[in-house]
Amino acid sequence: MPTTRSRTEGRDSLGRRGEDVAADYLTTLGYRIVARNWRCRAGEIDLIARIEHEGRSKIIFCEVKTRAGLGYGSPLEAITYAKRQRLRQLAGVWLSSTGEHADDLRMDAIGVLLLPGQQPQVRHVPGIDR
Fold first, then answer.
1. Are 29 and 53 in contact (CB under 8 A)?
2. CA separation for the pair 103, 58 (Å, rounded)
3. What are the tens digits of pLDDT across the range 93-110?
4. Could you read off the pLDDT of 27-71 as tens digits, one per residue?
5. Which Pfam family, any one, appears in the UniProt record (predicted)?
6. Nearest Cα to Cα of residue 124 among 114, 113, 116
7. Could you tell me the residue ranges of all domains in the chain?
């Protein structure tokens, strides 16, 4: 008897693939991935990265959205004002709970489009909290 996957399982798998693509993308830019799918009671941060440049460190908190098509719009359209505010709150919780610090903090959005038979398309928007 064939097994069927639930819609949630499909979304989770797609989301993981998108986060993998986003993490690889950031790594190629020189970022070091500090945490993936960090969770607390208030929610989840998809990716947390750090970059060192000219003796200064920056921690980047990333919201990653992945789509397998454009039927519901581009991936970045799903990152609402409320999601940006939640990311800011979660960043504060993460900093408090880990004791990590940096010279600068930034909230980024990464949209990943995974179309069948094509290379992943990545759109990175730095500084969505400004």
1. no
2. 6
3. 999 999 998 999 999 999
4. 999 999 999 999 999 999 999 999 998 999 999 999 999 999 888
5. UPF0102
6. 113
7. 7-75+100-125
